[in-house]
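Milestone 3.1: sequence recovery, worked example.
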C-alpha cells in the first residue's frame, strides 16, 4: 500500500484533465470520465511508480465511487419535491407515465429480442428508462433554455422518471442482491422496500420541524457533521433492509428537501457530490475491459433506436396535452434522450448481483452514445424541426 495516495493522486489528475477537455469541447463530462477509466486499469502500462493499472488503489477508488452514488442521490432528493410533482399538472403526470411506460416496454422488447434472462431484462429496463438529470439540467442551462415554456414539462417528467427509478431500484435490490430465490421471498423483500420508502417519507415530513431545530446552528463544521451523520446512518440502515443504500440516500435527501435549511445543505454538499461523483464514473470505467464491448454493439444500437422513438413519442404527447408547439414538443423528446448516472447505477446492481457481464458492456456503450447524442440533438432541434417541415412541404407539393 506504499503508493496508494500517489495512485489516487494520479486518478484525480486524469479526471481533472478529462474534465478540462470536456469543458473545452462543451460536452457532458460523464462519458469522458467513463472513457478515461476504461483507458487505464489492468491492461494499462506501468513504469516505476507510474502505474496506471491502479492495482493498490482500485478497491479504495471503488469505495469512493460508492460514496459518489450516495451524494448524487442525496443531492437529487434535496432538489426533488413530491408536492411540486403533484401540482405540476396533467401534462407532466400523463407525459411522464407515457415516457416511463414506453422506455420500460422498450427494455422488455430488447430483452425478448436478445433472449435475456428475466433479471438481466429488468436491469436493462432500468438502464433504458432512467434519463440523466445531471446532463439534462446542464444542457438546459448551457443552451439558455431554462425560461422556455417546455422546460417545466421536461423537469417535471424527469422528476416523475426519478420517482419511478427509485421504486425500480428498490425492487431490483430485493430481486437481485438479497439472495432470495422464491417468488414470495422476492415479493416480501420488494414490499419491505416499498413500505420503507412510504413510511420513511411520511415520518420524515412529520419530524422535519425537529430536524430543522437541531440544524439551527451557526457552526459550519457541526452543521456538515450532522448532515453527513444523517446521510450515512440512513443509507447504511436501508441496506440492512435489503433496500439499496442509494435509495436510503435519496430518502433522507427528500426529507431534508422540505427543510428551511435546504439551501445551506445544498451549498455544503455540492462539492462532495461533484468530487465523489466524478470518482464514481471513473471507477465504473475501471471495471470495463474495452475488448469486451464489441459483443454489445448490436444490442446497444437497437436500444438507442428504441429510446429515440420512445422519447420522441412521449415528448410529442406531453406537448400536445400541455398545448405547446410541435417544435417545443420536439425539444422535450430530444432533451430527455440523454442517459448517465442512473443507468450506471442500474448496471452496478447487475454487477453486484453476479449477472451477465455483457450488461456492463451494454450500459457503457448505451450511456456513451446517448450522453453525446442527447445534447447534440437538443442543440440542433431547431434545425431538425425546420428540415422536417421543409421535407413535409415538398411531399405535399409532389402529391398535389
Amino acid at each position: 500500500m506504499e503508493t496508494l495516495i500517489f495512485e489516487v493522486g494520479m486518478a484525480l489528475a486524469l479526471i481533472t484533465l478529462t474534465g478540462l477537455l470536456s469543458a473545452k469541447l462543451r460536452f457532458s463530462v460523464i462519458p469522458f470520465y467513463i472513457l478515461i477509466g476504461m483507458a487505464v486499469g489492468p491492461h494499462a502500462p506501468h513504469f516505476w511508480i507510474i502505474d496506471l493499472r491502479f492495482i493498490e488503489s482500485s478497491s479504495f477508488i471503488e469505495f469512493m465511487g460508492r460514496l459518489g452514488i450516495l451524494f448524487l442521490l442525496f443531492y437529487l432528493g434535496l432538489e426533488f419535491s413530491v408536492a411540486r410533482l403533484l401540482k405540476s399538472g396533467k401534462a407532466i403526470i400523463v407525459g411522464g407515465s407515457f415516457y416511463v411506460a414506453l422506455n420500460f416496454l422498450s427494455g422488455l422488447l430488447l430483452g425478448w429480442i436478445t433472449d435475456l434472462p428475466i433479471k438481466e431484462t429488468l436491469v436493462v429496463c432500468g438502464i433504458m428508462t432512467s434519463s440523466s438529470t445531471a446532463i439534462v439540467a446542464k444542457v438546459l442551462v448551457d443552451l439558455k433554455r431554462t425560461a422556455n415554456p417546455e422546460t417545466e414539462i421536461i423537469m417535471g417528467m424527469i422528476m416523475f422518471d426519478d420517482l419511478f427509478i427509485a421504486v425500480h431500484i428498490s425492487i431490483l435490490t430485493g430481486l437481485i442482491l438479497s439472495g432470495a430465490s422464491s417468488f414470495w421471498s422476492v415479493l416480501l423483500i420488494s414490499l419491505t422496500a416499498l413500505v420503507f420508502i412510504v413510511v420513511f417519507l411520511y415520518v420524515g415530513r412529520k419530524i422535519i420541524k425537529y430536524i430543522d431545530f437541531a440544524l439551527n446552528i451557526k457552526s459550519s463544521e457541526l452543521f456538515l457533521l450532522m448532515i453527513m451523520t444523517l446521510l450515512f446512518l440512513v443509507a447504511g440502515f436501508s441496506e440492512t433492509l435489503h433496500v439499496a443504500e442509494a435509495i436510503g440516500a435519496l430518502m433522507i435527501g427528500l426529507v431534508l428537501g422540505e427543510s428551511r435549511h435546504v439551501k445551506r445543505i445544498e451549498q455544503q454538499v455540492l462539492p462532495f457530490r461533484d468530487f465523489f461523483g466524478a470518482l464514481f464514473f471513473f471507477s465504473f470505467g475501471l471495471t470495463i475491459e474495452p475488448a469486451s464491448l464489441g459483443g454489445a454493439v448490436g444490442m446497444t444500437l437497437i436500444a438507442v433506436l428504441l429510446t429515440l422513438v420512445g422519447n420522441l413519442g412521449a415528448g410529442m404527447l406531453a406537448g400536445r396535452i400541455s398545448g405547446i408547439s410541435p417544435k417545443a414538443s420536439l425539444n422535450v423528446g430530444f432533451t430527455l434522450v440523454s442517459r448517465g448516472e442512473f443507468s450506471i447505477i442500474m448496471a452496478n446492481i447487475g454487477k453486484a448481483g453476479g449477472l451477465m457481464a455483457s450488461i456492463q458492456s451494454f450500459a457503457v456503450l448505451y450511456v456513451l452514445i446517448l450522453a453525446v447524442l442527447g445534447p447534440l440533438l437538443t442543440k440542433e432541434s431547431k434545425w431538425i424541426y425546420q428540415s422536417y417541415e421543409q421535407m413535409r412541404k415538398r411531399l405535399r407539393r409532389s402529391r398535389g
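The two ends are 77 Å apart (CA to CA). The chain has 17 helices and two strands.
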